[in-house]
Amino acid sequence: MLTSTLRTLTGAAILAVMTIPPALAQQKPAAKPDPRVAMGGYHPERMDSKGLAPHATPITITAPENIPVNRLQVPPGFKVELWAHGSPGARMMARGDKGTVFQGSRAIGRVYAIREKDGKRVSQIIAEKLVQPNGVLFHNGSLYVAAINKVLRYDDIENNLDSIPTPVDMTEAFKLPPEVHHNWKFLALGPDGKIYIQVGSPCNLCEINPGVHGQIRRYNLDGSGMEIVARGVRNSVGFDFHPQTGELWFTDNGRDWAGEDVFEEELNRVPADKIGGFFGFPYCHANGQPDPDIRVPNACANVILPVVTLGAHAAALGMRFYTGKMFPSEYQGAVIVARRGSWNRTIKNGYDVLRVNATADGKNPKITPLVTGFLDKEKNAFWGRPVDVMQMPDGSMLVADEQNGAIYRVSYGK
Amino acid sequence: MQLHHPARRDFRRAFFFFALLAICGTAMSQPRGDAARGAEKAAGCAACHGPEGRAPLPGMPALAGQQREFLETQLVLLREGLRNIPGMEGLLRQFNDRDLIDIAAYYSAAKPFTESGTRDPQKHAAGAAVSQGRACGSCHLSDYGGQRGIPRIINQREDYLAATLKAYRDDRRVGSDTNMNALMYGLSDQEIEALAHYLAHR
Predict the structure, then answer these.
(1) Does the interface ipTM go beyond 0.90?
(2) pTM of this structure
(3) Low-confidence residues of chain B, pLDDT below 70?
(4) Gap from B81 CA to chain A (nearest CA, Å)
């Protein structure tokens, strides 16, 4: 009964979207997604068992003695240690010129600042009651914070950590859509001096308005001059710029409820001559696989395919190119990416940090694990969820663990 | 000398402790929170939620037997004012994370609440259809008992369920993520009231 009802609903949704050619869809006004479409592609019968549900992040403090950092594994010569703790739900990282590490969050609505104070590394709440302030960016002394419904700028923040100034509210300038689902933000500063920010697709699988959703955009620092850099992006929560070419590379998460092994997450590249190019959602996933529910002819024609896929449901989020001097030469120019780990899969996967080597034009990708041990494969259980990585001036890498509100430092040699 | 007996008792106690630990280790993940301490901290909560959170006043949720992880998250969201119930924010400000973890342990261990009242067969059937359409049982499981961060919704107070689901629909309530907002979108008051009736009278 449940299944057939869902099939009927999904069928109705498919018929509805199939009658709208993609070109016309662009003219549709921005509207809240119809939930029958928002639930599009919901097919528990395709999964091995029911009861799959997102793992809610604990938003209470985890004491350092309860963080089993000794279970983490790194390649020979590397070392991993607990670097900071006590920031429940902390996610994306940005580093100030004076060494403060800022972290956004989701459910708990806080922005944290982690700094040395009286010889100790402490975590401090610098903003609260925001709606999923996931995106943080530091530039010219200012901290930019992107929540779902707000963009804020804290000027001269590192000199004012003891008395946080009222931020400049830039929300109006950025004109971000109000939908909450898949709309927590990631921020990065491009080599062109612009702010890059994504607008996710507000559903698991649905026909989106490509004029509004499923994009990566760039703006001038004041929020003016918006341009669409990538389209057909389902839910990206991480990007960076290639150290040689300056091209944007980004992670993107594949749709759920299609099966245990589909569709894989992507690591994408936006070629310089394809700014504004189309990356496939909702018609074409992963390495060129048409969607089984929203079907269009030639679903993968003119879709920019990924550099490499990063596992089904594994949630590849924060990524950075490694340009430091500390790690061995094979790390130079490699992508380091955090995989938060799966929920829509009976056998868990992800929960690690990977290195991806590829040529500057995205050829010959090779994946090598960097940090593992968050997941006990035998017990199919996890204790940590890496969500972001960030290179430090000495060439070590920080890894943010949302599950434990902790940061680990990965170093080599010495 | 009395040395032998306490020593042997210690040994026996230690043996029992480790045996228990072994059982706990396999049967469940590590125990979290001190329910007895939570009961002390939660003494004032009974005024509105009833003894052990089992007999709430109109419009208030039953807490007895609720999922522990769900309770922890909600207590933090309420304390931080992110889930905006001004009265609760004031009451919870005094508690640190450990207090809230203990309170969650206390209520989650209590015997679940059972709604009394009369079932309206027509409304019940209408609610069942809404539940199937939105696939509530996928995350809340087929008995609606919930799991981990997903709440127990079976036999919750009907008025509370209806108000909560409307608040999700109208983006006046946040959860640990945004799925409930997306799932309630587009339902009429009547459909939500039927769904609440169905869940409250299982």
Answers:
(1) no
(2) 0.87
(3) 1-30, 115-116
(4) 7
